[in-house]
Design brief:
The chain contains 5 helices and no strands. It is mainly alpha-helical. The protein has one domain. Helix 1 runs antiparallel to helix 4. The protein starts with a helix and ends in a 7-residue tail after the last helix.
Length: about 100
Protein backbone atom coordinates (compact mmCIF):
# COMPACT_ATOMS: atom_id res chain seq x y z
CA UNK A 1 0.00 0.00 0.00
CA UNK A 2 1.27 3.48 -0.84
CA UNK A 3 2.59 5.77 1.85
CA UNK A 4 -0.15 8.36 1.26
CA UNK A 5 -2.89 5.77 1.62
CA UNK A 6 -1.26 4.39 4.77
CA UNK A 7 -1.16 7.92 6.20
CA UNK A 8 -4.82 8.56 5.32
CA UNK A 9 -5.93 5.28 6.94
CA UNK A 10 -3.87 6.04 10.06
CA UNK A 11 -5.29 9.57 10.34
CA UNK A 12 -8.85 8.22 10.03
CA UNK A 13 -8.21 5.65 12.74
CA UNK A 14 -6.56 8.20 15.01
CA UNK A 15 -9.56 10.53 14.79
CA UNK A 16 -11.80 7.63 15.77
CA UNK A 17 -9.81 6.04 18.60
CA UNK A 18 -6.26 7.36 18.72
CA UNK A 19 -4.64 10.73 19.20
CA UNK A 20 -6.93 13.12 17.37
CA UNK A 21 -5.66 16.16 15.51
CA UNK A 22 -8.59 18.21 16.87
CA UNK A 23 -8.63 17.28 20.56
CA UNK A 24 -10.12 14.13 22.03
CA UNK A 25 -10.81 11.22 19.69
CA UNK A 26 -14.36 9.96 19.42
CA UNK A 27 -13.56 6.97 21.64
CA UNK A 28 -12.06 9.21 24.36
CA UNK A 29 -15.09 11.50 24.18
CA UNK A 30 -17.45 8.55 24.63
CA UNK A 31 -15.56 7.41 27.74
CA UNK A 32 -16.82 10.55 29.49
CA UNK A 33 -20.52 9.70 28.91
CA UNK A 34 -22.77 7.30 30.79
CA UNK A 35 -24.56 4.54 28.92
CA UNK A 36 -27.88 6.32 29.49
CA UNK A 37 -26.48 9.47 27.86
CA UNK A 38 -25.13 7.47 24.92
CA UNK A 39 -28.36 5.52 24.41
CA UNK A 40 -30.75 8.47 24.79
CA UNK A 41 -32.66 9.50 21.67
CA UNK A 42 -33.91 12.69 23.31
CA UNK A 43 -32.19 14.85 20.72
CA UNK A 44 -33.42 17.19 18.03
CA UNK A 45 -32.58 14.66 15.31
CA UNK A 46 -33.81 11.63 17.35
CA UNK A 47 -30.42 9.92 16.91
CA UNK A 48 -28.57 8.67 19.95
CA UNK A 49 -24.84 9.04 20.43
CA UNK A 50 -24.70 5.26 19.89
CA UNK A 51 -26.52 5.64 16.52
CA UNK A 52 -24.10 8.35 15.42
CA UNK A 53 -21.07 6.37 16.62
CA UNK A 54 -22.12 3.33 14.57
CA UNK A 55 -22.79 5.58 11.58
CA UNK A 56 -19.29 7.08 11.85
CA UNK A 57 -17.71 3.68 12.47
CA UNK A 58 -19.41 2.23 9.39
CA UNK A 59 -18.15 5.02 7.16
CA UNK A 60 -14.65 4.76 8.62
CA UNK A 61 -14.76 1.03 7.82
CA UNK A 62 -16.29 1.57 4.36
CA UNK A 63 -13.79 4.22 3.27
CA UNK A 64 -10.82 2.30 4.67
CA UNK A 65 -11.97 -0.80 2.79
CA UNK A 66 -12.35 1.20 -0.44
CA UNK A 67 -9.03 3.04 -0.35
CA UNK A 68 -7.12 -0.10 0.60
CA UNK A 69 -8.89 -2.16 -2.10
CA UNK A 70 -10.26 -4.53 0.53
CA UNK A 71 -6.90 -4.71 2.32
CA UNK A 72 -6.36 -6.52 5.57
CA UNK A 73 -9.16 -5.05 7.70
CA UNK A 74 -11.62 -6.75 10.00
CA UNK A 75 -15.23 -7.24 9.05
CA UNK A 76 -17.62 -4.61 10.36
CA UNK A 77 -19.36 -6.19 13.40
CA UNK A 78 -22.81 -4.67 12.68
CA UNK A 79 -25.09 -4.32 9.67
CA UNK A 80 -23.16 -2.89 6.74
CA UNK A 81 -25.36 0.10 6.05
CA UNK A 82 -25.37 3.87 6.48
CA UNK A 83 -27.18 3.81 9.84
CA UNK A 84 -26.60 0.40 11.49
CA UNK A 85 -29.13 -0.53 14.17
CA UNK A 86 -27.60 -0.62 17.64
CA UNK A 87 -28.25 -3.82 19.62
CA UNK A 88 -31.33 -3.67 21.88
CA UNK A 89 -29.09 -3.87 24.96
CA UNK A 90 -25.77 -2.52 23.77
CA UNK A 91 -24.19 -1.98 27.18
CA UNK A 92 -21.67 -4.79 26.75
CA UNK A 93 -21.03 -3.91 23.10
CA UNK A 94 -20.46 -0.26 23.91
CA UNK A 95 -18.23 -0.96 26.89
CA UNK A 96 -16.08 -3.39 24.92
CA UNK A 97 -15.94 -1.30 21.76
CA UNK A 98 -17.11 -4.44 19.92
CA UNK A 99 -14.62 -4.23 17.11
CA UNK A 100 -14.85 -0.50 16.56
CA UNK A 101 -11.22 0.09 17.38
CA UNK A 102 -8.46 0.25 14.80
CA UNK A 103 -6.65 -2.93 15.81
Amino acid sequence: MGTRIDLLVQMTQDEFDGTSFNGLSLAKTLEKLTFDQIASKETFEKYSVWDITLHLAYWCYYLTRKITAGGNIREFPYEEKDWPTPPADGTEDLNSGRGLDSE
